[in-house]
Specification:
The protein is of the alpha/beta class and 210 residues long. The protein has a single domain, classed as P-loop containing nucleotide triphosphate hydrolases (Rossmann fold, 3-Layer(aba) Sandwich), CATH 3.40.50.300. Helix content is 40%, strand content 12%. The protein has a 5-stranded parallel beta sheet, with helices on both faces. The two termini are 29 Å apart.
């Protein structure tokens, strides 16, 4: 059985990852399973342990941090299992290692997908556009995102996301949702998959550094 393709979309909240994942599911051939942060946090993680892997940078919840590497390990092992069964996976994640104690979660996750076809995509979006999206809101996610105010136009957690989420910045492909629609980003990803990726890939390099 051929292994399924894996696409990891990494970026800050409201950068457009979920919309790209939806576009991939709608337009790519075959079944694409969405195993991203929203699915894992909202539907799998017990309420008292949320936000789980969605924990913001800055060490705000040291009580949850011992579980974060385990949650990520379980999620990535699940992604690997789907791929080995021939299912394609798209996962929208907000990776960072900015916790109260040093961690290398991204490197460990990369090792768990060793030998599987992974395209690691950085989803970029300028801070002003992210704040527009946060302040406008999202149906069904009322109160889920920090918004700006007169006293704090850009909340500190939003700044921390923007600074931490793209470290170390090793990607196979980067897209910018401020200049391209979700459908256009998905099309760029599809074109990249149709070409042979250069080796070592981003995840292979990240795994080697661990």
């Amino acid at each position: 059985m051929e292994t399924g393709q894996i696409i990891i979309l990494n970026g800050a909240p409201r950068s457009g990852k979920s919309c790209i994942a939806a576009a991939i599911q709608e337009s790519f051939e075959g079944p694409w399973m969405n195993l991203g942060v929203d699915t894992y946090v909202r539907h799998a993680t017990p309420l008292r342990y949320q936000p789980g892997i969605g924990l913001r940078p800055g060490g705000e919840r040291p009580d949850l941090e011992p579980l974060i590497p385990v949650f990520y390990a379980a999620l990535y092992d699940c992604i690997a299992a789907h791929s080995r069964l021939g299912l394609n996976v798209v996962a929208d994640i907000g990776h960072h290692d900015s916790y109260s104690k040093p961690l290398n979660i991204l490197g460990d996750c990369a090792k768990r997908l060793n030998g599987l076809p992974v395209l690691f995509v950085g989803v970029r979006c300028p801070l002003d556009i992210i704040m527009q999206r946060r302040n406008t809101g999202q149906a069904g996610r009322e109160g889920a995102y920090a918004v700006g105010s007169a006293d704090e136009p850009i909340p500190a957690p939003v700044l921390r996301w923007q600074e931490a989420v793209h470290i170390p910045g090793l990607y196979d492909l980067e897209v910018d949702t401020s200049t391209s629609s979700s459908a256009a980003c998905a099309a760029t990803i599809k074109e990249t998959l149709q070409r042979s990726l250069h080796h070592p890939t981003a995840f292979e390099r990240l795994a080697a550094k661990t």
